[in-house]
Design a protein that fits this description.
Blueprint: E1 12-15, H1 20-24, E2 31-40, H2 43-54, E3 67-69, H3 94-102, E4 107-110, H4 116-124, E5 128-131, H5 137-142, E6 144-151, E7 160-174, H6 181-191
Parallel strand pairs: 1-2, 2-3, 3-4, 4-5
Antiparallel strand pairs: 2-7, 5-7, 6-7
Helix pairs in contact: 2-3, 3-4
C-alpha cells in the first residue's frame, strides 16, 4: 500500500509485504512511514539463512515480499515491547544479501551505503533499501508494537525476530532505477561547493 499522491512532500505510507507496484513508486530520497511485519537479521543470522538456502532447506521465515531490518534489539524494560532497536551498518551484510534478494526478499532497512553488487541486485530483483536514522534507536522502538522470536535463539539479540512496525520513519536510499541517496547527497554538496 502506498499513499502520497496528493502531496509528494508528505511521507509515503507503505505496508508490508512489499509488492512490485509499491516498490516501483519509491525513489531514492523519498520519506517512508513503514508499517506491517518486518523481520530482524544481522550478520550471524544472515550467514545461517544463506547456508540454509544453499542446502535447499526451508527457511525459518518467509522471504517473498518481506523486509529485513538490520538490528539487534536491546532487551525490553518492563512494560515495553522491545528495547532500543537502532539500525546496524548495512555493509556488514553485503556479502550475504544477494542470495536473499534472489530468494524473494524485497526490502532491507539499515544505515549506510551498500556495495555496488547489492545496489545492482536491488535493481535486478526489484527491491528497495531503506535507511533509518542512526542514533534513533529509542524512537524506532516506540513504533514497534509487537515482537516475537522466530529462529536462532542461541544468537541472543542477533536472533531473528518478527516485528510489527507502525509508521516507522525511513528514507529510500536505493531504488530499482539505480537511484542512490548517498550519491545524490554528495552531488548536492559538490554543486554547493561544500565537497570536492
Amino acid at each position: 500500500m502506498k499513499n502520497n499522491e496528493t502531496n509528494p512532500s508528505e511521507p509515503v505510507r507503505v505496508t508490508t509485504p512489499l509488492t512490485d507496484p509499491v516498490i516501483a513508486g519509491l525513489k531514492a530520497g523519498d520519506r517512508v512511514l513503514l508499517s506491517g511485519v518486518v523481520y530482524t537479521a544481522r550478520d550471524a543470522a544472515h550467514k545461517r539463512l544463506v547456508e540454509t538456502l544453499s542446502t535447499g532447506q526451508s527457511l525459518p521465515l518467509p522471504l517473498s515480499g518481506q523486509v529485513i531490518y538490520y538490528t539487534g534489539p536491546a532487551p525490553a524494560r518492563p512494560g515495553q515491547v522491545i528495547g532500543p532497536a537502532g539500525p546496524t551498518t548495512s555493509s556488514r551484510m553485503d556479502t550475504l544479501t544477494v542470495p536473499l534478494l534472489e530468494a524473494g526478499l524485497k526490502g532491507m532497512v539499515g544505515k549506510g551505503r551498500r556495495s555496488a553488487e547489492v545496489r545492482q541486485s536491488v535493481i535486478n530483483h526489484r527491491a528497495v533499501y531503506l535507511v533509518a536514522v542512526g542514533g534513533a534507536a529509542a524512537l524506532v522502538s516506540k513504533r514497534i508494537i509487537k515482537m516475537d522470536l522466530v529462529a536462532y535463539e542461541d544468537l541472543g539479540t542477533e536472533a531473528i525476530y518478527r516485528l510489527e512496525f507502525l509508521d516507522v520513519p525511513l528514507v529510500v536510499a536505493n531504488d530499482i532505477y539505480g537511484g542512490d541517496l548517498y550519491e545524490q547527497g554528495a552531488a548536492a554538496y559538490r554543486i554547493a561547493g561544500l565537497l570536492e
